[in-house]
Amino acid sequence: MTLVVPYDNSELSKTALIRAAQFSTVFDQRVVAVSVVPRNNTTYARERDWIGSNERFDTEAVVTTLRESVAKIAPEATFDHISVGRDAPSGTIANKIRRFARQNDASIVFVGSENAGRIVGTLTVGSSVTTDRSYETMIIPHAKPVKIKELETALPTPPEIQ
Q1: Distance (Å, rounded) from C-alpha 25 to C-alpha 17?
Q2: Where does this protein have coiled-coil stretches (predicted)?
Q3: pLDDT digits (tens, 9 = 90+) for 43-53
Q4: Tell me, what's the pLDDT at 83?
Q5: In which band, very low, low, confident or very high, does the pLDDT at 90 lie, cut at 50, 70 and 90?
Q6: Is 37 within 8 Å of 86 (Cβ atoms)?
Q7: N or C: which end of the chain has fewer CB within 10 A?
Q8: Domain locations in the chain?
């Protein structure tokens, strides 16, 4: 079984990754962070601070940035990325994440991305990624994680996230 984290380098996705890493120490399951990267979408990449304001889009550089960010937060986690078309609709991104979660035998998907509104839906938590019944979903609604004693004991939250 696997703990999957859709990861876009936002504060919420970082918190979701921390929470998944904490759960992995308790449940003894591996953590996999996955980023969906629209090809050649400079605006999308700049909005997420994947590239600087004067940088050209470079998929390899974006993936490296995301991979390094994941490794800094959760060194034991593995990282994967999925490329989609430049103007992929939100449904495509959510479908890719759901498929990835199923293919990686996810027990829990930790959703804390800035795209949570596109993935989860703004009115309910029950749409898109969360509708798949092959795994549980944990929504991370706050960039600063709520302290849970048992999880903090297993793996303390890094000071830069607290």
Answers
A1: 13
A2: none
A3: 999 999 999 99
A4: 96
A5: confident
A6: no
A7: C
A8: 2-154
User: Which CATH number, 3.40.50.620, 2.40.160.20, 3.30.559.30, 3.40.50.1000, labels domain 2-154?
Assistant: 3.40.50.620
Structure tokens at 144: 């600063």
**Does the structure show a pLDDT above 60 at 54?**
yes
Rounded Cα gap, residues 127 and 94, in angstroms: 10
DSSP code string of the chain = -EEEEE--SSHHHHHHHHHHHHHHHHHT-EEEEEEEEETT-HHHHHHTTSS-TTPPP-HHHHHHHHHHHHHHH-TT-EEEEEEE-TT--HHHHHHHHHHHHHHTTEEEEEE--TTHHHHT-SS-SSSGGGG-TTSEEEE---SSPPP-HHHHHHSPPPTTT-
For tokens 């795209």, the residue is 115
Calpha distance 161→146 (Å, rounded): 11
